[in-house]
Design a protein that fits this description.
D-amino Acid Aminotransferase, Chain A, domain 1, four-stranded parallel β-sheet, alpha+beta, 17 strands, lyase, EC 6.3.4.18, N5-carboxyaminoimidazole ribonucleotide synthase, Rossmann fold, Dna Ligase, domain 1
Length: about 450
């Protein structure tokens, strides 16, 4: 039923068109509704999670989707750029009110080589890397970067496909034969011709990410750094804030702000980071990749921040002021993979917040997430242990992991022997000679700050 005066007369945007209808689209729609906006979705799966919150248009119905919305955004960075370009042109003509994020952000995010070149052009450090267009250039990369290296397609590739670990000279020919078709756009890896990228191995101790929102007027607001743990290359756990990282916060915020300003970005973006050591032995950050959308490592913000990442993305897209990004309570978010837990057992844990994505069960599929926010921060780890115990898929969190294991998980590289694990763990690259590290000022510990906010709220 339509209400005659459902919108203020000054509100020119009523419906947001979202490219994609997965759980991110669903949670964006959940955030849009209290602000007075409806959402429609372009998605080929009619029973997708977002279908609970608005009409779903098949890709064959693109024109109908366009007609149904006033402004556009997306939930998936691998959205075809031709579609985004079409929506951008409609906005330029004045017939629609915007496509956010901009096309250039997708073009960069879909190309690993362009992405790392952008980072370095902005004085943001990365692992050492080289473009590879031939077997001779691959030989040169192995010589200059030192073995082992990871050879990857710069575009496409998924679930460990499109990459090859070169551990010794005898692997070079096999690696080139496996991936060379990507350079010409032949084969199944990617239809777009693009150079391969060779990346040097680095020692890192932790995986972090920072999420920020940028408004149409250029205002940027950043969330706390969070720590991420992966299982078979899939995010398993996020802790917010990341304990003991306040001295890295300024470096991270400077980096993501530079990127967003450089791209003229509007909306929420995530920047994934590795913690390593600089030449003086101090903690420093290396940029891994951007996600030009709301991000899995920001799901904790629904309960744990003053304004969630989803609401801030909607605010940016419809040109409303951004909300406060402060962490109001330390939290741990777990992804539910493959099989649903007993919801009663989950909600019997104090501080547990359950979010189902209404998906069918399937191995390693993200079907829900759970955020833990017990009233007393001291109860966070005990609550986590209780939660892991009731999860059908423990996502590897019931086991201890080593630095070498973390290195493998981050790169999605299978390691066959303990000797190879040792090699990964002890390989020290000359990162500081080829990249510039941005240093950050020392601040009070994030967790302490968050606990102080909780205590203040209690009063």
């Amino acid at each position: 039923m339509t209400t005659a005066n459902a919108y203020p007369v000054t509100q020119t945007i009523r419906t947001i068109g979202i490219l994609g209808g997965g759980q991110l689209g669903m949670m964006l729609a959940e955030a849009a509704m209290p602000l007075g906006y409806q959402c429609v979705f372009l998605e080929d799966s009619a029973d997708c999670p977002a279908s609970l919150y608005g009409r779903v248009f098949h890709s064959d119905q693109l024109e109908d989707f366009i007609a149904a919305a006033d402004v556009f955004t997306l939930e998936f960075e691998n959205t075809p750029t031709v579609t985004v370009e079409q929506l951008t042109n409609l906005s330029k003509s004045g017939s629609k009110q915007g496509m956010f994020p901009p096309l250039i952000a997708l073009d960069i995010a879909q190309d690993r080589l362009k992405e790392k070149q952008m980072f370095n052009s902005l004085d943001i450090a990365t692992v050492p890397f080289m473009a590879v267009n031939s077997e001779a250039e691959l030989q040169q990369a192995c010589h200059e970067l030192g073995l082992p290296i990871v050879l990857k397609t710069s575009r496409g590739g998924y679930d460990g496909k499109g990459q090859f670990v070169i551990r010794q000279d005898s692997d070079i020919k096999s690696a080139w034969q496996d991936l060379k078709d990507a350079v010409t756009g032949e084969g199944s890896l990617t239809p777009t011709p693009a150079p391969l990228i060779a990346e040097g191995f680095i020692n890192f101790s932790r995986e972090l990410s920072i999420i920020a929102a940028r408004a149409q007027n250029g205002q940027v607001r950043c969330y706390d750094l969070v720590e991420n743990h992966h299982h078979h290359g899939i995010l398993a756990k996020t802790q917010a804030p990341a304990v003991g990282t306040s001295h890295l916060f300024q470096q991270a915020t400077d980096a993501i702000t530079k990127i967003m300003n450089h791209l003229g970005y509007v909306g929420v973006m995530a920047l994934e980071l590795f913690v390593t050591k600089d030449a003086r032995g101090n903690d420093a950050l290396l940029a891994n990749e951007i996600a030009p959308r709301v991000h899995n490592s920001g799901h904790w913000s629904i309960e744990g921040a003053v304004t969630s990442q989803f609401e801030n993305h909607i605010r940016a897209v419809v040109n409303l002021p951004l909300g406060d990004t402060d962490n109001v309570h330390p939290a741990i978010m777990l992804n539910v993979l493959g099989q649903y837990p007993d919801i009663s057992a989950v909600l019997n844990i104090d501080g547990a917040h359950y979010h189902s994505y209404h998906k069918a069960e399937r191995d390693d599929r993200k079907i829900a997430h759970i955020t833990l926010m017990p009233n007393d921060v001291a109860d966070l780890e005990p609550a986590l242990a209780k939660l892991i115990a009731v999860l059908p898929n423990k996502v590897g969190l019931d086991k201890k992991s080593t630095t070498a294991d973390n290195q493998q998980k981050a790169l999605d590289i299978p390691t066959s022997t303990e000797a190879e694990k040792s090699l990964v763990n002890t390989k020290v690259t000359e990162v500081m000679e080829v990249t510039k590290i941005i240093t950050g000022d020392s601040q009070k510990d994030n967790m302490t700050n968050a606990q102080a906010k909780v205590n203040k709220a209690k009063k």
